[in-house]
Write a structure and sequence with these properties.
By secondary structure, this protein is of the alpha/beta class. The chain has 10 helices and 12 strands. Helices cover 48% and strands 16% of the residues. The strands form 3 sheets. The protein has a 5-stranded mixed sheet. A 5-stranded mixed sheet has the order 9-8-10-7-11, sandwiched between helices. Strands 2-3 form a two-stranded antiparallel sheet. Strand 2 (76-77) and strand 3 (83-84) form a beta hairpin. Helix 3 (86-98) crosses helix 9 and helix 3 crosses helix 10. The chain has helices at 2-49, 53-60, 86-98, 109-117, 132-137, 185-193, 204-212, 223-232, 261-277, 279-293, and strands spanning 62-67, 76-77, 83-84, 101-106, 123-124, 138-140, 155-160, 177-181, 197-201, 218-222, 236-238, 255-257. The chain folds into 3 domains: 1-46; 54-147 and 253-293, Periplasmic binding protein-like II (D-Maltodextrin-Binding Protein, domain 2), CATH 3.40.190; 155-238, Periplasmic binding protein-like II (D-Maltodextrin-Binding Protein, domain 2, 3-Layer(aba) Sandwich), CATH 3.40.190.10.
């Protein structure tokens, strides 16, 4: 009868083991249901609490501004190697009004735009003028600096003085090489209004070097910048060739990533205050003095 008891024990054990597996499967299913529910609730909570750009800036206590400091008096390097200019003062004012610290990220002009695209900067403040293309790709603030020689107001072609008698009209530039800062209004103007080969440069200083070393025949700049270089660099001259400028919107704009509407509204309110108090005109005049100290004669 021993064998019978052994079989009975084995059978009883199998029943309990089977029962245990069933209970365990039921328990596992319940756990999976609970975990799935918690995961859905967690995802929903994250979506509901996602902060917009303005809230993110205030939360981290810092606003990152992209700038290309080669455009005096708006943004440039002073005699003490500091980034200064009227746009820098505007950036400081924006940070102050938002109650956060200012962090400047210096880079090439074209990179100052793409930095906003890829969230490397919260806003771009670098002498940007309004263009249709920029408006399609970014949120642009209301204009400021409407009374000065901004990027969108007046433009000219800087040439070597020795060529002033042969490069008087736009037709004279046919077949020539004209430099322009990449992604600038000047690049667009030179491409549309001359039959020259356009040479893109990262910085204005690079364009000046290529012009003085005779690698290009001209450099398209805003009038105020062209005048400064014509006065401060021997052998440079502003061509008489007339360039037409789209004056749909006069002045400069702050560039913001498309869709950051809360930040755009806040920036617009701050710029409206700046315009009303004529603060930018004050910063601009002060920056001209600093530019002269740095050896940049803007002819003001």
């Amino acid at each position: 009868m021993e064998w019978y008891r052994d079989v009975n024990r084995l059978f009883t054990g199998m029943i309990f083991f089977y029962y245990f597996l069933i209970k365990r499967r039921i328990l596992m299913k319940k756990l999976l249901i609970i975990l799935s529910f918690l995961l859905l609730v967690s995802c929903g909570s994250k979506q509901e609490t996602k902060m917009n750009k303005l809230e993110q800036i205030k939360d981290k206590g810092e606003i990152v501004v992209s700038v290309s400091p080669d455009y005096a008096p708006m943004e440039f390097i002073d005699k003490d190697n500091n980034v200064v200019g009227s746009d820098i003062e505007l950036s400081k004012y924006i940070a102050e009004k938002l109650g956060v610290e200012l962090k400047l990220e210096t880079m090439d002009f074209s990179a100052a735009l793409t930095a906003v695209d890829f969230d490397k900067a919260d806003i771009g403040v670098s002498g940007f003028g309004w263009t249709k293309d920029r408006e399609e790709n970014y949120d642009l603030s209301i204009t400021y600096n409407v009374e000065q020689g901004s990027e969108s107001t007046c433009n000219a072609i800087l040439i070597r003085e020795e060529d002033k008698d042969t490069l008087k009209t736009l037709d004279d530039f046919a077949g020539k090489k004209v430099a322009a800062q990449a992604n600038s209004i000047q690049e667009e103007i030179a491409s549309k209004q001359t039959k020259a080969t356009i040479e893109k440069v990262s910085t204005i200083d690079q364009g000046i070097l290529e012009l003085t070393s005779k690698k290009v025949d001209g450099l398209t700049l805003s009038c105020v910048v062209a005048e400064g270089y014509a006065k401060s660099v021997d052998g440079l001259y502003i061509s008489e060739a007339p360039l037409e400028t789209d004056t749909t919107k006069i002045g400069n704009v702050v560039v913001i990533k498309k869709g950051d509407t809360e930040l755009l509204d806040e920036i617009n309110a701050i710029i409206s205050e700046v315009n009303e108090k004529k603060l930018y005109e004050k910063w601009y005049d002060e920056a001209i003095g600093k530019a002269k100290e740095a050896g940049i004669d803007l002819g003001e």
